[in-house]
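User: Let's play a game. I give you a shape written as tokens, and you guess the letters that built it. Ready? Here's round one.
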């Protein structure tokens, strides 16, 4: 039976009996499957008006509220479903997902534990509990849950992706690659798997392989802003600045508030002495996040490159105000003061930089700053 014929049957049933709660519910499910959520909600509401003792209708109404981001309404519906039928594992699992999204991990764990207790053979509760553990940094517990989920359902691509991400975070790149390869084998069109595998290759500094995977991810999902951004990072590491700028630009088009993309593009512009463009990008970063110290730092260097020393000093001073332990800011500001002929202030800043570099164990920059300081004092 086609969806059109199915809908016609439900309409006919409701026409014959306007008090048939089951027909409204079934038509609501059909609307839901078509993505017509408002129509589905209207039918669920009518079904509950006619018969308020239907836990599945409350659950399904909660699912739509979840999709629409109405989390408190979703919780209220799941609560009612559980009140009417406390022995359905899906109701508890669904409520746990909302608590997890809200960062209420203790409540989420109670819900997932209850779902597993009711039905220990359902993989989704293990997956969701594993995700909650992972978000809290409890990777050992997360891995145990993912392992159980895979034993129950070996073809769950989400689990391999999530487990691979933990292995990647832990630096266990070999295991991460095994998991991402498994996802690609199960679903060659899974853009996330290629993206994640690209991240592993990037961490291994295998940038050509990373670029290949990011490119595949983008081909599968042309709106994958993070894939453009990370491919840009790999091009940056290869000093292919033209390609990196193109990717950062595309990431920004997809997400106009992509702070790191603005920053990295600005960093390249500064390296290329394209100071005007660098200043524009770094100003955008600062507007999005006024405490982003590195944006002030690099913008200060761009102003320095333009010989706009007053603005450079202002930016480097801002870095020091936000982070008084930033040795680079003192070192760079000292260079600006030196260029202005303010030797006294330059010496003062370089002395501070030398102390901080030594304290931080940065021997190379400590020696460079010390040499610069000695040169100033000699002159």
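Assistant: Ready! My guess for every position:
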């Amino acid at each position: 039976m086609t969806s059109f014929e199915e809908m016609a049957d439900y309409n006919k049933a409701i026409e014959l009996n306007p008090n048939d709660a089951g027909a409204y519910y079934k038509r609501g499910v059909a609307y839901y499957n078509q993505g017509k959520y408002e129509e589905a909600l209207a039918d669920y509401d009518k079904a509950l008006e006619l018969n308020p003792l239907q836990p599945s209708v409350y659950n399904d109404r909660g699912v739509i509220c979840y999709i629409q981001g109405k989390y408190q309404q979703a919780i209220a519906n799941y609560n009612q479903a559980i009140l009417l039928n406390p022995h359905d594992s899906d109701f508890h699992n669904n409520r746990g997902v909302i608590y997890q999204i809200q960062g209420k991990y203790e409540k989420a764990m109670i819900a997932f534990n209850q779902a597993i207790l009711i039905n220990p053979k359902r993989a989704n509760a293990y997956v969701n509990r594993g995700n909650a553990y992972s978000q809290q940094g409890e990777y050992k517990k997360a891995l145990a849950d993912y392992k159980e989920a895979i034993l129950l359902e070996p073809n769950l691509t989400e689990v391999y992706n999530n487990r691979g991400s933990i292995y990647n975070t832990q630096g266990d790149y070999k295991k991460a690659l095994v998991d991402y390869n498994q996802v690609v084998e199960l679903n060659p069109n899974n853009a996330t798997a290629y993206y994640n595998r690209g991240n592993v290759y990037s961490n291994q500094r295998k940038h050509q392989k990373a670029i290949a995977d990011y490119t595949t991810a983008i081909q599968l999902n042309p709106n994958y802003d993070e894939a453009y951004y990370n491919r840009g990072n790999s091009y940056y590491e290869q000093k292919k600045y033209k390609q990196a700028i193109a990717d950062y630009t595309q990431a920004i088009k997809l997400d106009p508030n992509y702070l790191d993309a603005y920053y990295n593009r600005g960093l390249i512009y500064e390296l290329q002495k394209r100071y005007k463009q660098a200043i524009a990008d770094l100003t955008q970063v600062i507007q999005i996040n006024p405490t982003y110290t590195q944006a002030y730092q690099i913008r200060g260097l761009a102003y320095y490159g333009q010989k706009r020393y007053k603005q450079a000093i202002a930016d480097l001073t801002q870095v020091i105000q936000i982070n008084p332990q930033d040795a680079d800011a003192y070192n760079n500001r000292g260079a600006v003061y030196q260029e202005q002929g303010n030797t006294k202030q330059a010496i003062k800043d370089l002395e501070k930089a030398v102390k901080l570099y030594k304290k931080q164990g940065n021997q190379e920059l400590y020696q460079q700053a010390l040499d610069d300081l000695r040169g100033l004092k000699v002159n």
